[in-house]
Write a structure and sequence with these properties.
Keywords: DNA-binding, Restriction system. About 15% of the residues lie in helices and about 25% in strands. By secondary structure, the protein is α+β, with helices and mostly antiparallel strands. Strand 1 and strand 2 form a beta hairpin. The chain is globular, with a radius of gyration of 15 Å.
Length: about 150
C-alpha cells in the first residue's frame, strides 16, 4: 500500500489513534422512534466488503452504533474474518462493529478502507482480548504506526 501524499510530500508515519477516530455515537432503538437501516455482522461478507443484507432498527432491542456515509465499519469479533464495509448511506450497526472515521483531511475513507485490510493492521488487530470470542482491542490498534 502506498502512502498518501500531502502537498506533494510523502505522508509521515503516524499512529492509528492520531489519524483515525473510533466513533462512540450510539442509538437506542427503545428511545428513538425514527427507523434506520441496521447492519449486523452476519450481513457483511467476509473478505469482500460486500453487504449481504440488513434489518431495521425498530426490530432491535440493544443499543447500536451510528454510522454515516463514508464511515468505515469493521467487525471487531474475530477480526481474521475480514468483515469490513464502507457504506454510502447512514444507519446503525451492532456494537460488535467499530465505526471508524478519519480525524484529518489527510486520511480519506478510501485510504482507511484499504488500511484496515493491510497485513500490518490485521497483525496488530489480532492482538485481541477474550479467549472464547476474541475481540480486537482499540487501545492496542490505536498505537499501531502506519
Amino acid at each position: 500500500m502506498s502512502l498518501p501524499r500531502v502537498g506533494g510530500e510523502a505522508f509521515a508515519r503516524s499512529k492509528v489513534g492520531k489519524m483515525i477516530k473510533l466513533s462512540k455515537e450510539r442509538f437506542d432503538p427503545k428511545q428513538e422512534h425514527n427507523d434506520r437501516c441496521c447492519i449486523e455482522p452476519e450481513y457483511i461478507e467476509p473478505g469482500t466488503g460486500r453487504l449481504l443484507g440488513s434489518t431495521q432498527s425498530s426490530q432491535q432491542a440493544s443499543i447500536k452504533a451510528i454510522f454515516n456515509p463514508g464511515d468505515v465499519l469493521l467487525g471487531k469479533l474475530i477480526l481474521c474474518l475480514g468483515k469490513f464495509i464502507t457504506p454510502d448511506f447512514e444507519g446503525v450497526c451492532s456494537t460488535e462493529i467499530w465505526v471508524l472515521q478519519p480525524k484529518t483531511q489527510e486520511i480519506t475513507s478510501r485510504f482507511l478502507h484499504c488500511l484496515i485490510q493491510s497485513d500490518g493492521f490485521m497483525a496488530e488487530a489480532e492482538k485481541s482480548s477474550g479467549f472464547r470470542m476474541p475481540r480486537a482491542d482499540w487501545e492496542i490498534i490505536s498505537e499501531y504506526c502506519f
